[in-house]
Amino acid sequence: MIRKTVDNVQDALKGVKDGMTLMLGGFGLCGIPENAISELVRLQVSGLYCISNNAGVDDFGLGLLLQNKQIKKMISSYVGENDEFERQMLSGELEVELTPQGTLAEKCRAAQAGFPAFYTPAGYGTEVAEGKETREFNGKMYVLEKAFEADFSFVKAWKGDEAGNLIFKGTARNFNPCMCGAAKITVAEVEELVPAGSLDPNEIHVPGIFVQRIFQGEKYEKRIEQRTVRPRN
Amino acid sequence: MLDKNGIAKRIAKEVKDGYYVNLGIGIPTLVANYVRNDISVEFQSENGVLGMGPFPFEGQEDADIINAGKQTITTLPGASFFDSATSFAMIRGRHVDLTILGAMEVAENGDIANWKIPGKMVKGMGGAMDLVASAENIIVAMMHTNRAGKSKLLKKCTLPLTGVGCVKKIVTNLAVLEVTNEGFKLLERAPGVTVEVIKRATEGRLIVDREVPEMNI
Questions:
Q1: Where would one find coiled-coil regions in this protein (chain B) (predicted)?
Q2: What residues make up the domain containing A78?
């Protein structure tokens, strides 16, 4: 067994520097690497390029890094839940590259899987395709999109073991598996870290080979963005 | 004239037994409430769930189980969770049978704009560009005119496009229309709405080539 455990979040984020490109898992506030984000805030690294489907809300998730002006550029598919984001974008402090969600996922997966680029129909004929190669296959037009190149990938799983194997829960899975192994160093934080051998190999979602460092997060707030319920009759 | 629930009710009739369906945010979400319960349908949410159920009872919300609108949801028997790349493989690979989404504008050639108003807030396209570029069966659910009373069914979209030539069918508060090579073909009228009213509310080319029946909802 190749051990991937680090003692704490400080060790997990060793080597993160100003100006780096980071991938961060999560959809909205669901399945975000809460502890890694807190540590990025504490480290005060700045000029960051962040690849993340969303940008958090004003006071949670990536919104915390935005408040601190640590982010130079966001690469996301949807950023509509964050006033500070809007302010920084309109004032030109923050660069934003909006990317179709499936393309964003595939740019991560391509990096993980060793593909430099891929063709997708998403965005053809729109401003997303401007300046990009296009090509026809079987009568349909496609846009050439390149794999991401990132320094660190921060993902969050439900359970993980010492070997870096990961299991996710519910829709907290989202972008996390695609980002594992898609950057030079993948850091996984988990709610529950267990000894190797405790997880059934049949149930593993992401094999430990894609993870370089794993730690158990100190606490998880798991904030709900839109609490929707139905009445009991 | 239909309200939002009426539009959803009419679209629900397009959902067939055995369909996997992706519902966008807004009116499309309401469609799930009106699908016949004697057919088998699974709802896909692009954040990574198939087999979405209703909202949870109070106290049973789970922060780890949400839909693409970030709302807490439940799952039904047979449901599955998956990652985002797999989710869009379902969409791009045309495994999802029907996509229902909202729009700001639709053009008579099937172009759609629903993600950006220049100069105002740009929230992003989310999964909309992937959905419209790939789905074979796209229904747009929207009001026929915007708040200022201007037509949303145009000769040409004025807003930045989400996709080109992809919309097949539109259900509005006034009508059901099909996008054809010649323009918007009027298929059905909303209850109490005349062809004249629909003509006035449609800027793009409207084709009325037969007696247009009233919707049956």
A1: none
A2: 12-116+148-216
User: A224 lies in a domain?
Assistant: no
Domains along the sequence of chain B with CATH: 4-46+86-208 (3.40.1080.10)
Instruction: Tell me whether residue A121 is in a domain.
Output: no
At residue A103, does pLDDT exceed 70?
Answer: yes
Tens-place pLDDT, residues A137-156: 999 999 999 999 999 999 99
Contacts of A66 (CB under 8 A, 6+ apart): A55, A56, A82, A84, A85, A88, A94
Q: Where in chain B does DSSP place strands (E)?
A: 20-23, 42-45, 49-52, 75-81, 98-101, 105-107, 112-113, 138-141, 153-154, 169-171, 175-180, 183-189, 206-207
Q: How many domains does chain A have?
A: 1
A84, pLDDT greater than 90: no
* Strand A150-161 to A183-194 pairing: parallel
Is some CB atom of chain A closer than 8 A to the CB atom of B130? yes
Structural domain contains residue A23: yes
Please indicate whether, in this complex, the C-beta atoms of A27 and B69 are within 8 angstroms of each other. Answer: no
Per-residue pLDDT band at B121 (split at 50, 70, 90):
low
User: Is B92–A89 a contact, with Cβ atoms under 8 angstroms apart?
Assistant: no
For residue A111, give the CATH number of its domain. Answer: 3.40.1080.10
- Is the Cβ–Cβ distance between A27 and A104 less than 8 Å? no
Given an 8 Å threshold on Cβ–Cβ distance, is B56 in contact with A230?
yes
- B214 is an active site residue: no
